[in-house]
Amino acid sequence: VFAADSTSPEPVARPNILVIVGDDMGYADVGFHGAKDIPTPNLDALASGGVRFTNGYVTGPYCSPTRAGLLTGRYQQRFGHEFNPSGTENGLPVTESTLADRLKAAGYRTALVGKWHLGNQPAMQPQQRGFDEFYGFLGGAHSYVEAKGILRGTTPVDSITYTTDDFGNEACSFIERNQEQPWFLYLAFNAVHTPMDATNDRMEKFTGEADMKRRKYDAMMLAMDEAIGKVQAKLKATGQSERTLIAFFSDNGGPTMNGTTTNGSSNAPLRGSKRTTLEGGVRVPFVLSWPGQLKPAVFE
Fold first, then answer.
1. Which one is catalytic: 33, 81, 117, 142?
2. Active-site residue 142, yes or no?
3. Active site includes 172?
4. Which residue among 96, 131, 138, 292 has its CA within the 20 to 30 Å range from the CA of 34?
């Protein structure tokens, strides 16, 4: 991997790779896109110190297909994954190689923390698809406060606190434990997908918001930003910031239209919603950050 130009520092041979994915975020709901009611200082810092793409697009308008496209590097229509899996038999075809497969073969330690949504069958689960470690859930949505369905590897966990906090803490643990080798971490939050579970302390920060769904959404976005801040702090504390390439984006646009499960998000000024191929369904917040290698920039 080479530096952006000849004046940049020496290239990092095998950088760590951290891919952070938000779930069902609205295009307008981060400070670097103009949000005023939700503080996202950690995401804003990532954007101001990195490369922000105002025209970032995902490959589909809902969850599983975009994740299939991300992890395979192929349009999901090429292998019949243009829809969310139905039933328990379907998922990412085992004939497809994943980014984790390839990086593991190149000597990376690999982990998925959070949402999978690419198949429940044993052969389709994360540790059969290139991930050394897995902490999270297999389906498309999950309670933020109930442990049932949360796995470490293939073993159910006994208890959780709040998934957004727990996923951030698990990511920090992985970073701490793998300082001596290159790693790939896929940090896939279920925030801000339904159900609308928010912590009381964060809800209290948004008492000025009269709409209860939006208030919960604001609190859930704040939780994700705080978790990402913890991850950034851990990279810095362990001296790994300048050898870690970070990508952040949402898996699709916010679900805002009637007839869908809505979460209080906003895609302004875009038209459309999750489950549509209008701009609001597929155009998402997108940032790349690599201190010392990628110069801060905005691509319109």
1. 117
2. no
3. no
4. 292
